Amino acid sequence: MAKTAPMRLLELMVLKQDISSVIEFIGKKESFQFYTKKKIEKKDDDEPKFNLDVDRHLYNEIKNIAIDLNVASDNLDIASAKSPSEDDRSKLTQILAAYNDLEKNLENARTTAEKVTSAVKEANAFSNLKVSYSELDHLSFLSIKIGRIPAENYENLKENLEDDAVLVPLGDDKSHVLLASSKKGRFALESILKEYGFVELEIPKDFMGFPEDAIEGLKKEEREALGLIKELEHQKKNFKETNESEILRLLASFTIAVQIEDIKNTLQSTELVYRITGWVPKSETESYMKELDEITEGRIAIREFEPYEVPAVMSGKEQVPVKMSHGKVIKSFERMIFSYGAPLYGTIDPTPFVAIFFTILFGFMFGDLGQGLIFLLAGILMSAKIIKFGGWEKFGPVFIAIGITSSFMGLLTGEFFSNETLLEPFSYWVTGLFGNPHAPILKLMPSQDPNSIKVMFAVFGVAVGIGFIINSIGLVLNFINNLILKRWGEAFFGKNGMAGFIFYWYVVATVIRVAVFKYQIAVFDWIVIGLTLFFASFAEPFERALSHEKPLLKDGLLAYIIGGVVEVIEVLSGYLSNTVSFIRVGAFALSHAVLDYMIMILTNLCGGAASVGGIVVLIVGNAIVLVLEGMIVAIQVIRLQYYEFFSKFFHETGQEFKPFKFELK
Asked: Which pairs from 300-306 meet CB under 8 Å and 24+ separation?
């Protein structure tokens, strides 16, 4: 049985000139967890922060651009990126300038379009009013002026007005204009107009309605403004397509630069030397030291420590981080372990057991060949990174595993997308090899067959048997882990120690002998059961004796007796509930068959699988089973492992190994 990966503590003494390249190496290697981080006050003679301030500003700017342009950060390749050079800073500055100009023009165009559109709406709203033109001065928000200016002043006036008013030419020579502004900006507008020789025209007092040519002018301005927005948005799209790869490269580069400085600010240092300490897997220490020596051209001092050589670890103040070494399939199950907690360093790695138990239990409860093949296909596509959603593609091997076991269970139960007849030829062929052809191989769907009750109890029996094996392995892991940690008392005594293990096994063996072989319980059996129950329940003085702790009865004799009696009840009820809890596995296997049966009943009521209604029922029904029941079964399997398996040996959690790496935050 594999233990957690051995770790080593490295202490690096790095010259100031090499610190950035060393941290960059560490971040890209992704296998170094910093041990201590102590902030220090920078001295006045420390290197200037100019580059850092510039790089952080540029980093924030390029990150905002990437977000605004919806550049896919999934394509960020930090592994091949390098810290930014002066050319990178210059290139990024150019990109930022071009983008900011584009954004400014787009913002101005939108502002103009908004004002012109508002003017058009208000003008249209009053265009049909049969009132004199002089009454337009009473509009709530809009102030209208019509007049003439020297044609050569038109462009300068328009530029000077900016967002203060909308300027609309009323003639081809732009000598007659209409100006629309807000009421509050009217006086500022008048002062500007005087500078450009504006002469307001007198409109007859009896003129009724809003001038048609003014409305048309406003509409023309609106069309031009909206067209400009469309053109600028097209330019923005082209900007993204042209610069996306460069934006990603620069974003990765400045991500490295900023995070290198963040790390430097947490390190202990003198004027010339930085000190770095951190945990590295033992299997990588030799290559680590060799590569660091090459990077610094020998200008580095490295010391390697075993965990037992670290005072803080030996005193219990610090924990050695836990790393697990697995292949791609088993590794995909690691998150189920770490979501509960990391095992202690040096103990047995439970991930392979979790992978096996999860796969078997899920397949047992979710038996359908067609639905299993869907899981299998999804897992293959996720592993090939064809399907990507929220990082779930790393669980592709999990879907492949449960797809295989669900499909196998479906072959046994004869279910294929809820249909029990399509697999009958296969079932007859397999069972015929053993002399009595029948279909399905294992009948779980409701039927009037008198043997169905026997099958149901057999399913429950198998489920309880699986539970017995899982509980037993949990007890064995607890025994071995305590031996590794030299906790002799907990290894041999207590509910989850060797005493509890022997009690559990002996009771189960006795029940089987009595039920199956009509065995008569002897005095010897009662002695073994009684002694193991005693050492499992009244374990305190024996545990403290092996641990050399005194006094043996920490809280006195009376408290020890009361606690022991309570523990007897806990041992008996605990082992019983831990085992019987796995009946739910059989119950879910049967309920899955019942759901498939109900889908087929509804399909037949809608005209059968060959009808449109039947096909709809089959598709919807199987989709519901795949999603909802798939989630419920997965939750139940995780629950069984957490509360029945992990509870046997997972009494104390360690620290998960989380190496430093560059990542977009």
From this structure: 300/12, 300/13, 300/14, 300/15, 300/18, 300/22, 301/12, 301/13, 302/10, 302/11, 302/12, 302/13, 303/10, 303/11, 304/8, 304/9, 304/10, 304/11, 305/8, 305/9, 305/10, 305/11, 306/8, 306/9
